[in-house]
Amino acid sequence: MTAILTTLLIYYMSSNNLITLLIAIEILLLTVTLKIISIGGYYDDSYGTIYSLIILILAGAESAIGLSLLVAYYRLRGSIGHKI
User: Fold this and answer.
1) Any idea what the Cα angle at residue 59 is, between residues 8 and 73, rounded to 5°?
2) Which of 36, 62, 77, 81 counts the most CB atoms within 10 A of its CB?
3) 47: which residues sit within 8 A by CB, 6+ positions away?
4) d(CA 53, CA 80)
């Protein structure tokens, strides 16, 4: 699990395509959610499941808002990309 998080963080820091950056953020949120669910199951705690559902709802909202901003940016500029 730590290797996945480290790999995705390195990819997030080095990538220059905005769509793949959004995908990396989504995968990061899903791996953290999976870790919270597994810890909640280990300690027999239902709050971990509720918290993970909240994280999934926020991740979906973040994805929808981010993609709509990218579409609006593409319509204005004609290309999607950034320079580091």
Assistant:
1) 85
2) 36
3) 40
4) 31
d(CA 15, CA 84): 9
Report if pTM > 0.70. Answer: no
Q: Tell me, yes or no, whether 83 lies in a domain.
A: no
Residues 55/40, Cβ–Cβ less than 8 Å:
no
Domain count, the chain: 1
Cα 32 → chain centroid: 9
- Helix (H) or strand (E) run with residue 72 in it: helix 47-77
Q: Is residue 84 part of a domain?
A: no
Strand, helix or coil for residue 82: coil
Radius of gyration of the chain (CA): 16
pLDDT 10s digits, 3-58: 777 777 777 677 667 777 777 778 888 888 888 888 888 888 888 888 888 888 88
